[in-house]
Amino acid sequence: MRHLGPNWYASVMGTAIVANAGATLPYRLPGQQAACQIVWALSAAALLLLLAARAGHWLHHRDQARAHLLDPAVAPFYGCLAMALLAVGGGTLIVGKDLIGEPAAVAADAVLFTAGTAIGLAMAVVVPYLMVVRHEADAAQATPVWLLPLVAPMVSAALGPLLVPHLPAGQAREALLLACYAMFGISLLATLLMLPLVLARLITAGPLPLPLTPTLFLVLGPLGQSTTAVNQLADVAPQAIGAPYAGALGAFAVVYGVPVLGFALLWLALAAAMLVRAARAGMGFAMTWWALTFPVGTCVTGAAGLARHTGLAAFAWLAAALFAALLTAWLLAAAHTLRGLLTGRLLPRN
Fold this sequence. Notes:
This protein is mainly alpha-helical. The chain has helices spanning 9-23, 32-60, 62-69, 78-100, 102-133, 148-159, 171-205, 220-240, 245-280, 294-310, 313-343. Helix content is 74%, strand content 0%.
């Protein structure tokens, strides 16, 4: 348990997004909903197990837990805790409600959304603060991992709309809607400040070390999740805010989402090329492989949202193609993680 770091929450995020993205695809296959429910249940069980294990980690290995916060390579992964809570909570309403009932699903999502949002906003402040005053980070150390604590509020912005219809009409709905847009802005602007550092490091210092190469896909997270957020918010805007804002927000979903998803595809091509290069150079499995799951999943939900709002079959095809890539990456990461746990390589006893 001493070696159980916050990066393990990425496996919960990566599993939950498979269920959430699969349930929102524009296409339906036999057994698709049941498969998504099974994966959601797996993510919920993994979250509960990991929360218990991490509580034991803080209880019995507090020195190591504090060292993680002071380690510039590990501290950003505390953002994964918030996103794991949010992803599983969103899945509870998207697919879990058919298993546990809608009232229980709403209650569970409300708890997980509140906790995940609070932790995400806190980490968006705490981790950059530590980077400034304690970590002594250098520009040459910049990696996409630095984006993790900044993306969490965007996940709240994307999943908060699921709760809007379950709130009383009027002030409550409008407050949550606008709070989600505020978190959208927090995450987007913070990402726009951090991303140039990451790109500059790649251009001036060359490729990332082989084990860190999959983290290039983390850049897709704020891109795909912001596209998802504006489309999800546009879906519920007519129920929460009056004209002319509801119509304007619907238009904003397309005007913003299309170019951002286009840039996401450009980055996806670059990251995939770097991943192939690393694989040829002998890149082995590491927990960073989970970076190939959640960020790609956000692009699936973003493309599916644009398919709803534009009616273009091209976006539906894109969502299906990206989901196939997501499913492949999840199967690979899950299989290697399970093997690493069984052999003791990922969590050594000493």
